[in-house]
Design brief:
35% of the residues lie in helices and 14% in strands. By secondary structure, it is α+β, with helices and mostly antiparallel strands. Helix 4 runs parallel beside helix 7 (175-188) and helix 7 runs antiparallel to helix 10 (235-247).
């Protein structure tokens, strides 16, 4: 008997049955390997105390403004309605950082359109502004603090029109409705918090008491600045906001408020006219995009330098195993510092208002160009004064002349918030009057501060960021939304002038490289270094690490640590859709989850 043949036939039959079974199983049953849910980075483990949003969530630097946004969500509004209410409320609760006398960069992911929209409501130079207006008669640059409190520092405000534009395009509520919490706060008064009170110290009295344009609401009857615990009533501001609620934005841009703004700016030696305000317009911008370790980044384009610079730094560092190096280790900080210096060299040379100067956006993010810059980062040495590269070689246009590198000083203030809702909309919103209290000029009878945004231009004429009439100054604001396979995953941003960019970058790296939850990523200590050898740092950066870097690379860390940024952020669980937000403890950061059923 042929046992071998019989055995072979049986073996073939068994294998055939087994293959049929496996094929059927693969068709009828999900593969545990292929469909096993992956943990979304930044999301806390099951059982964490961090709650998740039902109707929506807001994360704001101040509690009353957060409450105003949450109120809109509870009334059936969406993330854009909430954001608009927050912006107006911050004018009352954080007037030293933002308000209708300033500007904003607004990033909105519309779930309906499955697209990111960018509204540029950055301040604009008056028509009669001059490139050399910040120079002394001898050609030297004016003192920054002297310049920032003059009328020449004030740009045409854009925040109000940007907010109204966002609300009209993407919101569901009326302008008057989202303004009501702010109007009530201003009229009834708010208790000055410890966070607010620090900005009412005598360090700022010189700015606030200048006349005309003295900021009277912040002084008591004896002429002293209010302090923590005092009641702050802003009746003029309440009346102004009510006028806008009743009449719309035209009363601001083409009415008595525009006249009042022009009058006070001229009284403080500035060139602004009412026609500058009447002709102001917001810009719809195309966001800049990039990737970091497979995560899609959508960020702010010029005139902000934030998106390009942040993405460029992340791309430079992608060849390094940052996670293996360790969070805030000497190696990690060295790579970060070197990437900052290289990217900020390009920033100073090439970035400004794209409506006025050509900017090599494609070249700056070209993988080959970024690789050439990244190759300059070495683990045993430092680039003490790295020149800008030449991204124009990686563009279709290569006939641009060599850049003139010029510096501009930026205040380290501003404010930032994020919102999201159950419909899938996500908002990242950064808003400012530039330095603390802006120009220090309050519009008489109307109760809001004016910005000092023109000091973001180069004081010495020349370069991509040269001051020109009708031009927007370069910004660092970096509201950012990250995606995975087209689905929104994370939103972040920060205040802080040039530190904004690196703050957002470090929050992203903390989640992706160091497996932190979004709250841990926001809480973690940060650094900033725009140029060699200076390094700003926060408490928590290890002393041994600082000493090692100082010894090996001669970096000079600030004598004392100080807070860097305030990165309100959120992540969305890609498996469940739950929202997890983080408030930054560096200010009175507040997260509110709205769980009530929306009235829609």
């Amino acid at each position: 008997m042929d046992f071998r043949g019989k055995f072979q036939r049986k073996t073939c039959s068994v294998w055939r049955i087994l293959l049929i079974f496996l094929l059927a199983y693969s068709l009828l049953a999900p593969s545990t390997l292929a469909e096993k849910p992956l943990q979304t980075p930044g999301v806390p483990d099951t059982g964490s105390a961090m709650a998740s949003g039902g109707v929506g969530v807001v994360s704001v630097a101040q509690p009353l403004a957060a409450k105003a946004g949450a109120e809109m969500l509870a009334k059936g509004g969406n993330a854009i309605d909430a954001a608009a209410a927050i912006q107006f409320a911050l004018n009352v609760e954080e007037p030293m950082m933002t308000g209708i006398g300033g500007g904003a960069f607004i990033m909105i992911y519309s779930a309906k359109d499955k697209k990111v929209f960018v509204i540029d409501s950055r301040e604009r130079a008056p028509y009669k502004a001059k490139p050399d207006q910040f120079l002394n008669p001898d050609g030297s640059e004016m003192d920054f603090y002297e310049a920032q409190s003059m009328g020449i520092a004030v740009g045409v405000p854009g925040t109000l029109l940007g907010t109204a534009t966002a609300l009209k395009k993407f919101g569901t509520m009326k302008l008057a409705d989202v303004m009501q919490p702010a109007i009530k706060m201003a009229r009834d008064g708010i208790i000055i918090s410890k966070d607010f009170g620090q900005w009412l110290s005598n360090d700022y009295k010189w700015k606030l008491e200048k006349t005309p344009g003295k900021a009277y609401p912040f002084f008591d009857s004896s002429g002293n600045l209010l302090k923590t615990g005092d009641l702050l009533v802003q009746k003029d501001l309440a009346n102004t906001l009510q006028m806008i609620a009743d009449n719309g934005t035209d009363i601001f841009y083409d009415g008595p408020i525009a006249d009042a703004i022009a009058d006070i700016v001229q009284a403080r030696i500035g060139p602004m006219e009412a026609s500058d305000i009447q002709t102001y317009d917001v810009k719809w911008r195309t966001p800049v995009e990039g990737q970091y370790r497979g995560w899609e980044i959508v960020s702010m384009p010029p005139p902000s330098s934030g998106g390009l610079t942040m993405i460029q730094m992340l791309m430079m560092m992608e060849r390094f195993d940052i996670g293996e190096m360790g969070h805030n280790s000497a190696d990690t900080l060295h790579v970060m510092i070197e990437a900052m210096h290289l990217a900020y060299a390009d920033r100073g040379a090439y970035m400004g208002d794209a409506d006025f100067v050509p900017i090599p956006i494609e070249g700056l993010l070209n993988p080959d160009y970024v690789a050439s810059r990244s190759a300059l980062i070495e683990m045993d040495t430092t680039n003490e004064s790295p020149p800008p590269g030449n991204p124009w070689l990686y563009e279709r246009i290569t006939s641009i002349s060599a850049p003139k590198v010029a510096s501009a000083r930026e205040g380290r203030h501003t404010t930032h918030f994020v919102t999201s809702d159950k419909w899938g909309n996500v908002v990242a919103w950064t808003t400012t009057i530039e330095d603390v209290w802006g120009s220090g000029i309050m519009v008489p009878g109307y109760g809001f501060m004016l910005n000092n945004e023109m000091t973001d231009f180069n004081f010495t004429p020349g370069g991509a960021n040269e001051l020109q009439p009708m031009k927007r100054p370069r910004s660092s604001m970096t509201p950012t939304i990250l995606f995975k396979n087209g689905k929104p995953w994370m939103a972040t941003g920060s205040p802080g002038g040039p530190t904004i960019i690196t703050t957002a970058m470090q929050v992203i790296m903390n989640v992706i490289d160091h497996d932190m939850t979004i709250q841990e990523a926001v809480d973690a200590p940060r650094i900033f270094s725009g140029w060699y050898p200076w390094v700003s740092w926060e408490e928590g950066i290890n002393e041994d690490v600082r000493e090692e870097l100082t010894t090996q690379f001669a970096y000079l860390f600030d004598d004392v640590p100080g807070p860097i940024g305030s990165a309100q952020s959120l992540v969305i669980d890609l498996q469940t859709g739950k929202i997890f937000a983080a408030a930054d403890p560096r200010r009175d950061g507040t997260v509110i989850y709205v769980k009530g059923r929306a009235q829609k």
